[in-house]
Amino acid sequence: MNDTPPGPRGDPVFGSSRQYADDPTAFLEGVERAYDGIAAFDMGPMETYVVTEPALVERLLVSDAAEFRKPEFQADAIDDLLGDGLLLSEGESWREQRGRANPAFSMARVAGFDADIAAHAADRVDDWPVGDTVDVEAAMTHITLDVILDVMLGVSLPEARVDAIGDALEPVGARFEPDPVRFAVPEWLPMPDDREYAAAVATLDDLVDDIVAAREGTASGGDGDDPMDLLSVLLRARDRGEQSLDRLRDEVMTTLLAGHDTTALTLTYTWFLLSEHPDVEARLHAELDGALDDGAQPTVTQLQDLDYLEWVLQESMRLYPPVYNVFRTPIEPVELAGSEVPAGAPIMLPQWAIHRSPDHWDDPEAFDPERWRPERRADRPRFAYFPFGGGPRHCIGKQLALLEAKLIVATVASDYRLRYEGDTPLSFVPSLTIHPEQEMRMRVEPR
Description:
447 residues, alpha+beta, 5-stranded mixed beta sheet, 11% strand, globular
């Protein structure tokens, strides 16, 4: 057994962190192509492992999931933001909270949101300036914030408060962008952007307080007919003494942030790809025209007939997975592909690189929704594609995100074509999720 797998050689002190920070997606694609399923490199002082073999990904996320946990680097900053919410909690604490939250995200409940989601999309796009341009990323963020606030938290915020969420997310995102200096220094050492980050977290905390305050006294419907939105579930648990105030805050913050950003990015990249591929867009429009009632909002029942729409979204998340890299760390030393990985070492599972691997995808850089036909994907490894993670800790909001994305695309594409007017190829700002660096200005054309 090898002590350490091969990997890229870096610089003194910084290791390969400079190359990673310059372009994480290109770095991870290069590692995937150069090494056989597992590689190691120095991220500053941390020896870091990259796993790109789908069978190993499945082992870490599914079959041996109990042997791994989320690593603790940048723990202070992310704890300030998300605390002990579902994304970060571990062990029995996570199992209790996941079990408590599951009914709010059940498919039976989510399916009933179709009219609300379509209405939120229509409200935001009905006044789009035909012939002019809109920032599609900002527009999709507003829609997905409206949805998560409504269906999971049971509130509607004034426009200024919704805008405040977006404003606060900029310094939050910047704090988690790859930085070779931050990789190399101890976490307790102050950095120039710490104050701005703390102020943004404080702003978000105030917003969470407002959301919780607006729902006080509304969590029980009487006669056993209690509302089942997530915040109502959490408030009832708090009232029973099962949920601390701090944990309530952490779950609301996690739901607010994680519940809108990835879906907004999926939609943003989908509009970009449709703009760049008018043949795919035309086929999607034909499918929508054949399945939807003229002038009516799409329904969850109609979505069942929209196979091509589903393939378009799957292909968008393959090429541009909003969460481009997930991390695990072994609780005890573990053998992976003939190499020993020590306890506590960070392991990257890079969706971006695996989703674009020529080992698993024909012409991997091409936007080809047809690759999602059942006969073409039958022999593909299960974890050659995992935009929502996998195993017991897969994204709890997966069904909501997919339904939301389908309904929003169907609503908008029934009335408009969007034409991207920025530079290509896209460049990216990688943080906890991966955003386009360019402003996503698109010209609005009527259909």
